Amino acid sequence: MIEATLARSAATARRRLLDICFPVLALGILCAALAALGALIADVWGDGASRLSWDFMTGFPSRRAADAGIWHALTGSVFIILLTGALAVPIGVATAIYLEEYARRGLWSKIIEINITNLAAVPSIIYGLLGLGLFVRALAMGRSVLAGASTLALLVLPVIILSTREALRAVPGSIREGSYALGATKWQTVWYQVLPVALPGILTGTILALSRAIGETAPLITIGALTFVAFAPDGIWSPFTVLPIQIFNWVSRPQQEFQVNAAAGIIVLLVLLLTMNATAIWLRDRFQKKLT
Amino acid sequence: MRHSLLHAALPVLLTLTVACGGGTPAQQEGEAAPEALITLDGSSTVFPIAEAVAEEYGKANPDVRTPTVGISGTGGGFQKFCRGETDISNASRPIRPAEIEACKTAGIEYIEVPIAYDGLAIVVNPKNTWATTITVAELRTLWAPEAQGKVMRWNQVRASWPNRDIRLFGAGVDSGTYDYFTEATVGKEGASRGDFTSSEDDNVIVQGVSSDELALGFLPLAYVEQNRERLKLVPVEDGKPDNGAGPITPTAETVRNGTYQPLSRPLFVYISRKAADRPEVQTFVEMFFSRTDLTQEVGYIELTPQIYDLARKHFADRKTGTAFGEGGSKVGMTLEALLAREK
Predict the structure, then answer these.
(1) In this complex, do A254 and B80 lie within 8 Å of one another by their Cβ atoms?
(2) Topology classification of domain A56-291
(3) Which of A99, A151, B190, B206 is 20 to 30 Å from B1 at the Cα level?
(4) pTM score, two decimals?
(5) Residue to test with chain B: of A228, A231, A240, most B Cβ within 10 A
């Protein structure tokens, strides 16, 4: 009798201990991840902060590290990402709406679905090769901003489609049924009821996808983004370079001063990325509040 | 009211799409741009010179767009050049028969001009105390295709060297540097062992050799000059006393006077015949001949004034084709001899 009670309380103690251990472990892992990020940022900041200046931000590339700036790459990155979003978001969202709201469930939609999921996992360099063959050569876009943005749009499209579908799926069926009950057509239901509710989710997915695109180097190098471009892109047919390529070029130079430039470039890229994400989160929260 | 938000968001996106995707005005603008813009691509070895000249050209001509320079390797550069995608191709070796053919098929004529000398240096880690000289024969033993998986230790190259692993670094197989090195040491262009750390980017090799005591690599001399304290130069003995007896250390002097053989070479730019008629291209190309201070600044060795004059005349006469009859790298031939032969 006593032994049984003891055994039970020992088991309880073990359960309680486990219950405490798991959150501690999880917290530890979280801290390790954040510490790695923090160390990275601190390291880059220590290396590059001294180089950040107005001249650096508005300068153009140079063989002399002290004269080199980043304006061409910063404008290139911003231009590319805006154009990528403009190309990929409407197509991605429309595809997701079709697949989720209109397409009949069958073999075809299954096949399309599997393909989109697979495309999301294709290495980016493959998209670069596709972009080189299709946009740069077959469609004769040349090594332009448009070719770069089109390639990146292909790259982020599957992610946008998948996350939009998830967002649409999360919209309660009762909203659709309520809309139909009031005599709304399918289009009215989708446009006035479903999409607004799904918008925060769609935005989140889009931001994640574009954040990935802004750091991409391989596909852009493949399609022929250049190393030395001493002007800001001034149209969709302009040659261009982007921040990651400029940073890579600086890192791979032997002179120590260029390593400092690279660190400063990384800070600029991180700030751009964080600004993008913060704006998106702010937009999302705004929509969410107004909708509820 | 809730849909008003969506209505606010979507038109913005649609406008962007239309503005960016449709753009006839932009297209017209784009058609004018390629005329004004000079585009270069090719060798990473020639890149520093091209970059410096482009930068100075941009400063001197603020109303013209600064030329763009890409790094695709000499071979990759010619691929683009012979498709008509670039105006000028940077090359660390003469054009090859296959590339001559490709350009011919596409109807691209070109003017070949030498712009500088480059020396290939054999480098080891500064902590390496044993490798004080190396012969071309030893380089062949070490780099030949049959050495793969067999010649793995220093004492297999020279018996007096330590019985320790040897780790090799070299230019990527797409680069002109690699073509030239294999031709000069192994004897056949593009033939070497495959088990070495290779990179199209010479700086990666600097990083590799400077951090590994047992490393040996080959590099353009320019990169060594800029990394003097991180690398050690190994003098090379070619076994031919008539161009300087004993092991020769690569320097500007030994490269230019032809005693540092077989690992020194001329660098070229190939200018499309069509682009050569554009006044801005003429101004730009002239800077390769006149701004030799830039060539020195980025660590290359300038040609003699006579050769610059010959090259200038070449360009002015729009003399198309290559001086290298069969194409490919020519080892141990001075430019004077080549240009003289051509007349």
Answers:
(1) no
(2) MetI-like fold (1.10.3720)
(3) A99
(4) 0.74
(5) A228
